[in-house]
Amino acid sequence: MKLIHLTDPHLVPLGAMLFGFDPAQRLRKTIERINRDHADAELCVVTGDLTDEGDFASYVLLREVLQELRVPARLLLGNHDSRENFVRAFPGEPRDENGFIQSVHDGSAGRLIFLDTLVEGFGHGSLDDGRLEWLLARVAEASDVRAYLFVHHPLQPIGLPHFEPWSTENWRPIMQAIVSAGNVRHIFHGHVHVDVGGTWSGIPFSANRGVAHQIIPHFTRRDADFVEDAPAFDIAIIDVDGVLVHRFEVSDRHVVEVSAEGWVPEGMQ
Ligand SMILES: [Fe+2]
What we know:
GO terms for molecular function: cyclic-nucleotide phosphodiesterase activity; metal ion binding. By secondary structure, the protein is α/β, with parallel strands linked by helices.
């Protein structure tokens, strides 16, 4: 199963700018690259902060920009989003029985579970009001297959003081429950605007710097420096043996082609 993990496009209304750049233009360039090189992916998951201020006009713009994407998309919400305006713009996106933007996709390599950690008006994340119970039920009913989680807020620490006030509340019991379930193989998250990956009690996680602005990681400072680096997205290759995550930068770097003439794939000699 080939997946695309895209995050934090932070769209603003048409004609507006964010920190002096155009987020929609950055998303368009990213989509062009995906269409060119990865149109064979099964799904493109966007892990939240779809817009910067949650306004309806930005979701309308997002809808327009995403029409160019040749891979089916699944959209998650982040702390910068508005559930109400998202649903107005994307009424067909799946929701759980409580109205949260949570759903599953049973794909060729297992069950993908999409979470909604948005707490309207706040920066931190939560799985309260039945969201954690929904997650654990979806994991349990697929106990005979591998499960992969997609979420905006990290469910585990990432070691950066800047994000401590905006982490997921009660993250430790949530992670302990996920570990106990026994079949969760990877967590893909957004929110942090840095490239980071690791494990928590044996559960691997990964996040990329995203489409909009990036943050320079500081391990002791609470404040943060925002920069405009090249947008990035991840390609995840998932099979029965495990998960591979490749990061792609959307830049105009100079490319030198190396001929593969005479090259024979391993095992074919
Ligand atoms: Fe963000």
